[in-house]
Amino acid sequence: MMSRHQVWEHSAKILKTMSQNGKRQENIHAADSDEACEEMGKKYGWELMEIRENGDKLLPKDCVFEGEQTSFQDMWHDNYA
After folding, report:
1. Given the DSSP bridges, would you call strands 48-53 and 61-66 parallel, antiparallel or unpaired?
2. For residues 25 and 21, what is the distance between their CA atoms, to the nearest angstrom?
3. Nearest one of 18, 17, 6, 23 to 59, comparing CA atoms
4. Closest CA to 30 of 80, 79, 72
5. CA 26 – CA 45 distance, rounded (Å)
6. What digits encode the pLDDT tens for the residues 30-48?
7. DSSP at 60
8. Is 8 helix (H, G, I), strand (E, B) or coil?
């Protein structure tokens, strides 16, 4: 079984590919609730465009923000490297 971190990393890679294939840029991050999506947007200054159900049991919501895909892993690396 994958760790939570591995799930996030895997999801980010898939979602980045998906967002690059579409016309609008989407910055997509999984969350456990609609409220968590809204809080994430406020915290990072991202405009929340929509919330999608993704079928995952641990993090069942995809928060879709406007803009280029970001990675929390990159942010953590920059802060703790």
Report:
1. antiparallel
2. 9
3. 6
4. 72
5. 14
6. 999 999 999 999 999 999 9
7. -
8. helix
3-state helix, strand, coil in the chain (%, to 5): 45, 20, 30
Sign of CA dihedral 68, 10, 51, 17: positive
* Whether 37 contacts 31, CB under 8 Å: yes
The token pair that represents 80 in the structure block: 């703790």
Token pair for residue 68? Answer: 């280029």
Q: How confident is the model at residue 52 (pLDDT cuts 50, 70, 90)?
A: very high
Query: Is residue 21 scored above 60 in pLDDT?
Result: no
Distances (CA, A) of 76 to 5, 34, 45: 12, 24, 17
Residue 66 to residues 19, 26, 47, 48, 80, Cα–Cα distance (Å): 10, 5, 6, 7, 27
